[in-house]
Amino acid sequence: MAEANEAGGIGGKQLQLISRDDQSRPDVAISRAEELCSWEKVAALTGGYVDSLVGPIAAVAKKHRIPYVASASLQKELVQHKNEYFFRVSCLQGFVEPLCGILAQRFKPQHLAILHAATPGSVELARDLERCLKTHGLNVQLIEKFRPGTPDFTPLIAKLANMNVDVIVSGGFTPDHILFVRQLKENRISPKAYIGPFGIAYESFIKTMGKDADYLYSTCAWNPGITEPGTEAASKAFIQRFSRMFNQQPNTTNMHGYTSARALIAAMQAVLHNGLPFTGDNIRMALTKLDLVLPMEHLAFDKTGDPLHYNHTVVQIQKEKLVVVYPSDRAAEPAIYPMPPWDQR
Amino acid sequence: MWTTVLVSGITIGSFYILIALGFSLIFGVTRNFNLAHGELVVLAGYVAYWLWDGYGLSFVLTFPVAILVMLLICLGLKRLFARLSEPLELNSIVLSFGIAIVFQNSMLFLFSGNYRLIRIPFLNNSFQFHGVYMSYGQLTLFLLSLIVIFLLYLVMYRTYLGKALRATIQDKETAALSGINVTVMGTLAFCLGAVLIGLAGPLYGCTHYLYPSSGGEVTLLAITITIFAGVGRLSGIILAGWILGLAESFTVILFGSSWREMVIALLLLTLLAFKPYGIVGKGES
């Protein structure tokens, strides 16, 4: 928004951001979205973190015929309701493809376990990943659900060790990884790889875990230093502006927010540029025709509102830094596989 | 594998005991249902984190400071709870719910929404005992719980003060008629609770992680164990903590992680149906 306003706004008018806190509660998300659409008469909606909030907000957007670009959403069901006002900059396939690729082509584990949190995105990731691995001839030994915030993973770790699992894919979140990895270390269990698609590729995670974060794998759509080829300058400009405004380095979540905002601003500009009335329906139409190359992705939406080119890379933490290791054309360093046992670090 | 699971169950159970003791004691003596108990544990953890990370204070030395801070906060809370009218249980739930929200938002403001961990390499190192790896953190938790239980047992069952506290838990009015100053007993319960919270908090930050809203989970654990044990029953809390810890661990192995909460809920419902006064209760109200 600041970037667009500094460049003169859209059609000579300054954009105004009206934000509301959904408190991570679906009921509050609905009431705040209703408030924004009915009282504030906003032109478009963005934001919403995780599908339990994105789903209800999307329904409100549809009711008011206002486009909504979600910055963090994975659940497939949300794009199957023919809600033409709903768009998102992320999708599950962006996680599944690189994970399936590195597991099937590089690691080829004998015994693989997929653990997942009891959340829609995590459940679907586990299911789709298993399906993809099967097509590549890889069997998953164990798929197990756990509740985010589980206080002790030791019994599960004992079970995995007993099954000689050599690669663990965990669809948990940052706190689950913190506990799980520490308890792996405490029990001297060293799988060949530990992959956490959500919640590991963050500087804050690496800072919290210190050297124990080394060799862990994750996926990443964007991070300072990891950007869509050809967008290095735009990425650098974003980092500089963000650091100046917020006095900290941006992370991938911030970039998802930036990407959604860029999509909406571009669509609004297109509406005004074409001399069309500034309505929700016209902004929605402009979004369907969008084609933008941004640091995180080449952004264009399909007919359901899903992004066409959302791809993660597989990253590994090496010497407390995130390093791209897959796919080959984006890899900065080779993957260290198997990861060294705890007592040899 | 089974020994590992057994050790894990006992260790996590010991931590549950440490968390629940303070809640149960305060509730037993004062009838104040403190829904902000978990937030206090997390806050004590943050105090330790702040001293350890910001000032390089030794982890051991963070305990007395955390206890002191908790003593001050708990005495403040006691004054607030003292202003409540009957029904105490219900009104204290409403009040402490508000306090919990205030604590959560204050922690969010002071410490941000990042996950914090007190990283003590020694406590994360492990040793092998009869083929089972156990971390020094687990051992510390287990030993500290035993020491706390033993000291609390001495206070509760070997001193006049403990007798007065137990009398207040059993029947506040009768205790008052017998010459026991129940108001002082309430203050003492809050002080003992604060000490227990001050001990549990830094350990929580070291063996789990700190997050402003993670206190709700801790409160729920404390409530579950108190219901399981029966109000103010030390032996019941010990038994309940270990049973819950072991039930969780063995459920993961036998049925899978997704059954963990279901089994605990079934255990609790069964207990409420057949032993409504707690696992060691004998039917008295």
List keywords for this structure.
A: 345 residues; Rossmann fold; four-stranded parallel sheet; three-stranded parallel sheet; B: 285 residues; mainly alpha; ABC transporter involved in vitamin B12 uptake, BtuC; two-stranded antiparallel sheet; 12 helices; 2 strands; 76% helix; 3% strand
In summary, what is this structure?
The complex is a heterodimer of chains A (345) and B (285). Chain A has 345 residues and is an alpha/beta fold.
Largest interface by residue count?
Answer: A-B, 32 and 37 residues
* CATH class membership of the largest domain in chain A: Alpha Beta
Overall geometry of chain B comes to globular
Strand order of the largest sheet of chain A: 5-4-6-7
Anisotropy-based shape of chain A: globular
CATH domain topology of the largest domain in chain A: Rossmann fold
Radius of gyration of chain A: 21 Å
The CATH topology of chain B is ABC transporter involved in vitamin B12 uptake, BtuC
* Distance separating the two termini of chain B: 42 Å
Number of strands of chain B: 2
pLDDT below 50 for ≥5 consecutive residues: which ranges of chain B?
none
Please report which band the strand proportion of chain B falls in: under 5%, 5-15%, 15-25%, 25-35%, 35-45% or over 45%.
under 5%
Q: Which class of secondary structure composition applies to the elements of chain A? A: alpha/beta
User: Helix and strand string of chain B, N-terminal first?
Assistant: HHHHHEEHHHHHHH
Radius of gyration of chain B: 19 Å
Amino- and carboxy-terminal Cα gap of chain A: 46 Å
Portion of residues within helices of chain B: over 70%
- Main beta-sheet annotation of chain B: 2 strands, antiparallel
CATH superfamily (homologous) name of the largest domain in chain A: Response regulator
Mean pLDDT of chain B, to the nearest integer, reads 86
